[in-house]
Amino acid sequence: MARAATLAQDGHDVRIRWVTTNASRPAGLEALIALERMVLRKGRRCGADAIDRNAVGGPLAGDAKPDIVVDFTDARHDATAATRYLRPLYNGEAGESAALAAIVAGDLPRIDVHNEIDDAILVSGQPSAEAADGLSGALDTVMARTMTLLSAVLAGKSPYLTPKAETGRVRVRRSPTAYVLSGLAAEIARRIYRLCCYAPHWHVGWRHTDDGGVWASGNLSGAPWAIIADPGHCFYADPFPVTWQGRTFVFFEELDHRIGKGIISAIEFDAAGPKGPVMPALEEPWHLSYPFLIEHGGALWMIPESSLNGDVAIYRCTEFPVRWERHATLLSGLELGDATIVRHNELYYLFGATRDGSGGYSDTLSIFYAERLLGPWLPHSGNPIMVDRSCARPAGNFVRIDGKLWRPVQDCSNGYGAALGLAEINELSPTSFNQSVRHMLAPGPSWPGRKLHTLNRCGRLEVIDGSRIQPKLAALRPLMGEAR
Questions:
Q1: How far apart are CA 254 and CA 256, in angstroms?
Q2: Domain end: 157, 174, 191, which one?
Q3: Which of 19, 190, 434, 450 is deepest in the core (most CB within 10 A)?
């Protein structure tokens, strides 16, 4: 209910009616959330905390008839109460207890917005859990994405994709108390792990291949993958290769674990592989990653992720590969991750994972379009295009195969950056979008490790990235499997 403020910020006149239903929170839930607040969030509150009834919205007058009712309970609806009667469902069930049951069972629920009067599902979404910290964080994430979907419906938009119920995931029945205690124990284990290891520790894989590589096979087989060596206390991620002025470089995020802030670095490649040292290419006071590259107007441009700065900026290369100057701000006032641009049917389209201040970072896709690379950029009429952790977030450059447009997507169903999908774009215009994921790629015999998160290619050079266990002490590395 605390997130009713989201609707008010969107210009809706929000009124609250408190009703009594048969549903009730499990005994001791507030105490469990308070425990998580103390241990996991250092006293910070979140959207799952109990609130004062007078803190959100105004009371609904007894004789007032609203245009739209949004019912968060599992009570029987009154078909005469409003023109539109919307109810969020969690794995097909109504009420906070349904969301809580799904979380305690081991996963965030699928969210549907159901029109009670027409008995129709209007939009659906599958939230990602990388920002869900404990039971309270999971509830907060689910409610955040519920408001994302409700806001889309109220704005007359309809994210096109209805996520299918995921199968094959283990559902464990346990009480909220057991869930919280196991979560706290896992957090203690993670903190001990972080004392011993750098986490996460990403690394960049590369290979030269004369065939179509991953895009031809739909898997990671073929020529073996090699790793760009890192110094151990830094990780490399988000590789983007480019040939410019007769030289080939791979640009990537370099993050020093001791500092915790990413910069953009580069390393040169020749026919034998990496040559020379890793060179810093771009640094800002804020974190940078995902150095998307594009050639335009005889110049080389970079659009690194700068979501922590709340904008999407474009940089022009002034001395390849190590000097870049900020040229323009393409979008501002939003959190947008992994901006990826493609030219299609005489327009530029910018894809990115957007976040409205809370919830996951990888489940919501938004698209913008422009006639020129430098803008002005306009939002797609359907934004947010989708809420789906399995195929929303970009994972590298678009490619064209036999006249068809494709894009790699992150599959975060089993955690951030866990796997990749190869999605064919069936339809793309300022008012429409549709994609179909044709292939799924995950770590395995061809790419040992824990995750798979970016895919790009330049000529014969194909690059990916993944993560491994990286102990802080060299003496521990043979014991913990340093290689992957």
A1: 7
A2: 174
A3: 450
Q: Extract the tokens encoding 473.
A: 């002490």
Which residue, 395, 391, 389, is CA-closest to 360?
389
Split into its structural domains, the chain has a count of: 2
Angle at the Cα of 422 (from 239 to 338), degrees rounded to 5? 40
Parallel, antiparallel or unpaired: strands 461-471 and 455-458: antiparallel
Tell me, yes or no, whether 142 and 210 share the same domain. Answer: no
For residues 75, 81, 87 and 93, what is the CA-based torsion angle, rounded to 10 degrees?
A: 30
List, for the chain, all residue ranges whose pLDDT scores fall below the cut of 50. Answer: 1-2, 161, 167-170, 475-480, 482-484
Q: Using CA atoms, how far apart are residues 237 and 373, in angstroms rounded to an integer?
A: 26
pLDDT, position 477: 47
Measured from the Cβ of residue 461, the count of other Cβ atoms closer than 10 Å reads: 21
SS3 (DSSP) at 336: strand
- Say what the alpha-carbon torsion angle 10, 11, 13, 18 is, to the nearest 10 degrees: 10
Tokens standing for residue 381: 């009429």
Please state, in angstroms and rounded to a whole number, the distance separating the CA atoms of residues 242 and 247: 8
Q: Give the Å distances, CA to CA, from 299 to 183, 324, 346.
A: 50, 11, 20
Domain membership of residue 88 as a residue range: 4-174
Q: Check whether residue 164 and residue 208 sit in a common domain.
A: no
**In contact, 98 and 24? CB cutoff 8 Å:** no
212 and 142 share a domain? no
How far apart, in whole angstroms, are the C-alpha atoms of residue 82 and residue 181? 43
Task: State the virtual CA torsion across 193, 194, 197, 199 in degrees, nearest 10.
Answer: 110
Evaluated on CA atoms 94, 95, 101, 106, the torsion sign reads positive
Residue 347 has a pLDDT of 98
State how far the Cα of 429 lies from the Cα of 348, in Å rounded to an integer.
10
Q: Report if residue 153 sits inside a domain.
A: yes
pLDDT for the residue numbered 54:
61
> What is the C-alpha to C-alpha distance for residues 126 and 392, in angstroms, rounded to an integer?
10
Question: Are 219 and 153 in a shared domain?
Answer: no
224 contacts 462 by C-beta, under 8 angstroms: no
